[in-house]
Amino acid sequence: MLVAPQLIITVIFFIWPAGEALWYSLQSVDPFGFSSQFVGLDNFVTLFHDSYYLDAFWTTIKFSTFVTVSGLLVSLFFAALVEYIVRGSRFYQTLMFLPYAVAPAVAAVLWIFLFNPGRGLITHFLAEFGYDWNHAQNSGQAMFLVVFASVWKQISYNFLFFYVPRAAIHPPFVDRSRSH
């Protein structure tokens, strides 16, 4: 009985919409939604034969993989590094939390200021060394920039998950484990 409210919410807001989405995906509907015809899996066959969809799908897989792996590795590295810094460790902990405190709109303006192809700070710095940075014309640079910005935004959140449990271990236990 205590689970009933959660089950009702789950059915209304998750199961029912997912079921309707699946049902609609098996139909061909006119643009205004007045008539529909059951087509089975034909929509999925068409989707998986569309080269634009497949390109977008693999781009999404690459983006998700790069962001997840590099975000976790960088966060783990910084959590381990901050743990071994004795002087100023509170400062570095605060510094690691800074990206989480920056609003997404402010972060977007920051990235535009840094990487604007015409007058960005980092773009200008790279041009001094002969590297032409223009993420608007180079898909590899655009992917790198979006992955880098996403990882930067996630570092502090992941840092907390790695640092807090490690910091909660009583220091004599850590010293004892290092001696063996």
From TrEMBL:
The answer on whether this UniProt entry bears the keyword Cell inner membrane reads yes
Q: Where in the cell is it found?
A: Cell inner membrane
List the GO cellular component terms: plasma membrane
Which UniProt keywords are listed? Cell inner membrane, Cell membrane, Membrane, Transmembrane, Transmembrane helix, Transport
Spans through the membrane: 7-26, 63-85, 97-115, 142-164
Source organism superkingdom: Bacteria
How is this protein situated with respect to the membrane?
Multi-pass membrane protein
Q: Could you identify this protein by its name? A: Glycerol-3-phosphate ABC transporter permease
The organism of origin for this protein: Escherichia coli
